[in-house]
Amino acid sequence: MTTDAFGSKSSDDRASDERSAYDKRSLATLAADLPSDDRGLAYGEGVFETILVREGQPQLWSWHEARLTRGCQRLGIAAPSSAELAGCLAVCQGEGLEVLKLIVTGGSGGRGYRAPESPETRLRARATPFAVNQQARRGITARVCELRVAEQPALAGLKHLNRLENVLARREWSDMAISEGLLLNAQGELIEATSMNLAWYRDGRWFTPCLDRAGVEGTLLAALEAEMTFERVREGLESLAWAEQVVVMNSVQGVWPLRTLLKADGAILAEWKDEAHPALDELNHTVARLLGEPAN
Ligand SMILES: Cc1ncc(COP(=O)(O)O)c(C=O)c1O
Questions:
Q1: Residue 220: CB within 6 Å of ligand 1?
Q2: pLDDT tens digits, one per residue of 34-60
Q3: Kind of pairing between the strands at 140-149 and 178-185
Q4: Which tens digits make up the pLDDT trace of 229-240?
Q5: CATH 3.30.470.10 at 11-129, yes or no
Q6: If DSSP codes are grouped into helix, strand and coil, which group holds residue 31?
């Protein structure tokens, strides 16, 4: 399903359709607490998505659905149907900007790590109001995290529920002036940011790290890659120092350009003063369209 699947109706019509299709009992189930024997809680067995919803319209929906479904398949748990996922929109108010969080877990049962014969996955959905961080859109300070991410090709790319590396990395700083932390692997290769993908521009080309051994394959990055080329590379921090522009991005926040990159000890590693860069303008333009932002 794509956003367009909802496009022919007003958001009010669609929201009320979804609400009538999803009775109160279903909504209560989507909001219910997880039992303590849930395998998502016990082992992180599951996947999640955070989706930007604009006036009731989910953005990049088909990309989120595809990643969630792929993640369930990779973990061996049943993926919710398209209809079940679409029904989750009923938890949204349908006005302004919201973030819809979907969680799918492996359910209860099994014995220890051994999965149940016929697992019953659980689907949960929650919506919260959201506001674009306009200041970060103009440029941020980021730092390099000390934590090194592990390589695990079996899980690489998925937005699975085991996010302890990201949690530990995000604990490394509390300075509000620092908006993101860059994550490297043990070889010192760039992977991503704590909650965003990473890309940089040099000599007319965009680059982004290979995510086949670690990291999350972002839906915004995937949608962008369908329209323009990002060369996937295994490179270290030195590539950023030479870059004309460095950005972090995700499907909720959009693109944040880096203006200052700090080492973990706070020393300046690199700075980018050039706020107006044609490649960044073009990227911002494309992202604004992909995230359904009204044209200025
Ligand atoms: C670790 C990590 N990498 C990348 C992303 C970007 O993913 P998406 O573009 O689907 O939001 C996220 C999103 O939250 C993330 O948590």
A1: yes
A2: 999 999 999 999 999 999 999 999 999
A3: parallel
A4: 999 999 999 999
A5: yes
A6: helix
Please tell me the distance between residue 255's alpha carbon and the centre of ligand 1 in angstroms.
12
Q: Are the C-beta atoms of residues 119 and 109 closer than 8 Å to each other? A: yes
Ligand 1 pocket member 196 (CB < 6 A): yes
CATH architecture of 134-290: Alpha-Beta Barrel (3.20)
Amino acid at 93: Q
Q: What is the pLDDT of residue 6?
A: 31
Atom of ligand 1 at shortest range from CA of 63: 10
Residue 110 neighbours by CB distance under 10 Å: 17
The reported pTM is 0.92
Q: What residue ranges of the chain have pLDDT lower than 70?
A: 1-22, 296
Instruction: Give residue 20's pLDDT.
Output: 54
Residue indicated by tokens 């061996």? 76
> Atom 1 (ligand 1): residue with closest C-alpha?
195
What region does 250 belong to: left with phi over 0, alpha with psi -120 to 50, or beta?
Answer: beta
The residue ranges of every structural domain in the chain are 11-129, 134-290
Residue 296 makes CB contacts below 8 A (sequence gap 6+) with none
What are 143's two structure tokens? 């730092």
Report CA(193)–ligand 1 centroid distance (Å).
8
pLDDT at 21: 55
Task: Show the beta-strand stretches assigned E in 152-241.
Answer: 178-185, 190-193, 197-202, 205-209, 230-233
Which residues is 253 bridged to in the sheet?
A: none
Q: Terminal CA-to-CA distance of the chain, rounded, Å?
A: 28
